Amino acid sequence: MREQGFAYATPFSAETDRKWQKTSDPRTGRRTVTPLEIETATADERCRIESNYFGKRLAAHADAQNIVISRNRDQVLRLQKLMNTRYANARRILGLRQE
Questions:
Q1: How far, in Å, CA of 29 to CA of 9, rounded?
Q2: Do residues 28 and 37 lie in contact, with contact meaning Cβ atoms separated by under 8 Å?
Q3: pLDDT digits over 5-42, tens only?
Q4: Which residues pair with 24 in a beta bridge?
Q5: Measured between alpha carbons, how far is 43 from 52 in angstroms, rounded to an integer?
Q6: Which of 17, 38, 82, 87 is deepest in the core (most CB within 10 A)?
Q7: Sign for the pseudo-dihedral over CA of 10, 56, 47, 44
Q8: What is the pTM of this model?
């Protein structure tokens, strides 16, 4: 973003910039989009793609989930068994073939 002339501290800062909230048509009440907002959004999306922002977020989220799972393995296995039992019971009640 900085290379394209924008200075935001975080990726979320660009989309929550207060100046975008002030742009609405007083006659219709509809939110209007300014050329600057479009330029900012385009630069933000380009930056997210070039930096693999979403891929990195997904990897960080998966890592955090794997840590929680590994620290709570017994509870996760009990929950898995419960969910499988409920699923099998629902299929039986509905008259569906067991998997």
A1: 30
A2: no
A3: 998 998 889 888 888 877 677 888 788 888 999 999 99
A4: 31
A5: 14
A6: 17
A7: negative
A8: 0.63
Q: Check residue 9 and report its DSSP letter.
A: S
Residue with tokens 């048509």: 25
Cα separation, 71 vs 68, whole angstroms: 5
The pair phi, psi for residue 6, each rounded to 5°, is -115, 140
How far is Cα 64 from Cα 14, in angstroms, rounded to an integer? Answer: 26
Six-digit token pair at 64? 């955090």
Closest CA to 45 of 95, 4, 94, 99: 4
| Alpha carbons 9 and 71: distance in angstroms, whole number | 33
